Amino acid sequence: MELTKIFTGMENGPEAIQDNFKKISDNISDTGWRTDGVTFLNGSTPVADDPSTPFFNQPAYRVITIDKTNIILLHGMLKAGTAGLVIQFPKNVAPNEYYIQSMPSGNWQLNSDGTLLKAGSNAFSNAFFYFQYVKEA
Questions:
Q1: Separation between Cα atoms, residue 76 and residue 58, nearest integer Å
Q2: 3 vs 11, 22, 24, 136, CA distance in Å?
Q3: pLDDT, tens digit (0-9, with 9 covering 90-100), for 96-131
Q4: Of 67, 65, 72, 105, which is closest to residue 90 (Cα–Cα)?
């Protein structure tokens, strides 16, 4: 995306500024929070729907695209499960490399195939995770 350089005294400056804003807005999109394509693995279960905490109801993802860059956000809270692979996210939101996140609920690893690993060897309950990363579109 190429923007017009703005300078003092330029001809049609307000129009150039408006055109730049339009170029920017035309190159931004947001999927909103989505749950389609999220699969629970190895007995993991989401927190039951609770209107007081709608953000945490189910593991979800969101993709905000700015020009040719995706900002990917993943979050969720699992009611119960056993450490190991707990969720499969859609491959289009999988990172290019793995990420590790340490949270009060324990350590999590998001793999490049979209699987989410809950580290440890024990069963868990009410475990929260959150990832954000950039991926070229």
A1: 6
A2: 16, 10, 8, 20
A3: 999 998 888 788 999 999 999 998 777 777 788 889
A4: 72
Are the C-beta atoms of residues 29 and 65 closer than 8 Å to each other? Answer: yes
- Give the pLDDT band (50/70/90) at residue 57: low
In sequence order, which residues have a C-beta less than 8 Å from that of residue 86 and are 6 or more positions away? 40, 41, 42, 44, 78, 116, 117, 118
DSSP structure string for 76-136? EEEEEEEEEEEEE--GGG--SS-EEEEETTEEEEE-TTSEEEEEEEEEEEEEEEEEEEEEE
**CA 115/CA 95 separation, integer angstroms:** 10
Indicate the pTM of the whole model.
0.79
